[in-house]
Design a protein that fits this description.
six-stranded parallel β-sheet, DNA polymerase, domain 1, 10 helices, Rossmann fold, alpha/beta, globular
Length: about 230
């Protein structure tokens, strides 16, 4: 009996890389670099909320990456009455994010186990240069057949055109044998669902799914992916 899946799409941040840890690292480094009086817990909590909202706007096509890079810091600085050039701060933040190749537990084990058996693609809405540097600085750098960032192709998850691009690049045309694995219901799972491929929601915090889209699979640990593929 053959494998059910041949092409597996992996999201990067929040799925393979620990984005929360990277955010805190880059924000703290940047605040220190510009000598800004900084209360870590308070600032990080507010920044994460702002960043999530602005990325949501990006996924819905309401803003672009250039505006996103600056808007999140403009809002943060307004809240805390910080007088700082957002363009310079954003550049510093992205430079530090590029160093932050912190991985989620089990990521290397899963990817190294799958890459010989499946065609695997890394698909991200993140900024290309930043994501590329993070991938290059991680143990995952040699495992992916395909690396696609929305910034490079001009369209982002969940847009079906993003997935069309992935399929064309990977020379894969059978939606029944493809699956996307990601932590975002709004980008990864909705995108996969709308495109017509199976989806696997990585939900380590056991967040309740309040939306209308049900993922094909739901996992709390990355190791469970191997169980899904073995039983498929």
């Amino acid at each position: 009996m053959g494998k059910k899946y041949e092409l597996i799409l992996f999201d990067l941040d929040g799925t393979l890389f620990d984005y929360n840890k990277a955010e805190e690292y880059a924000l703290t480094k940047s605040m220190n670099y510009f000598n800004i009086d900084y209360t870590p817990d308070l600032y990080v909590e507010n920044y994460r909320k702002i960043n999530k909202e602005v990325w949501g706007e990006f996924e819905r096509g309401e803003t672009n990456l250039d505006e996103l890079r600056l808007k999140r810091f403009r809002i943060l600085f307004d809240i805390f009455d910080i007088k700082q050039d957002t363009k310079a701060f954003s550049k510093s933040y992205l430079d530090f994010i590029a160093e932050a190749s912190f991985m989620i537990e089990g990521a290397e084990d899963v990817i190294s186990a799958l890459y010989r058996e499946y065609k695997i693609a890394l698909v991200t809405n993140g900024i290309y240069s930043t994501q590329y540097e993070r991938l290059k600085g991680s143990p995952l750098k040699d495992y992916f057949d395909i690396f696609i960032a929305s910034e490079k192709i001009g369209v982002a998850k969940p847009d079906p055109d993003f997935f069309n691009y992935v399929f064309n690049t990977s020379e894969h045309n059978d939606k029944k044998t493809a699956m996307i694995i990601g932590d975002s219901l709004s980008a990864d799972i909705k995108g996969g669902f709308d495109f017509g491929i199976d989806t696997c929601w990585f939900n380590p915090k056991k967040i309740k799914n309040e939306g209308k889209i049900e993922p094909t699979y739901e996992i709390e640990e990355l190791a469970q992916i191997k169980d899904i593929l073995t039983s498929s």
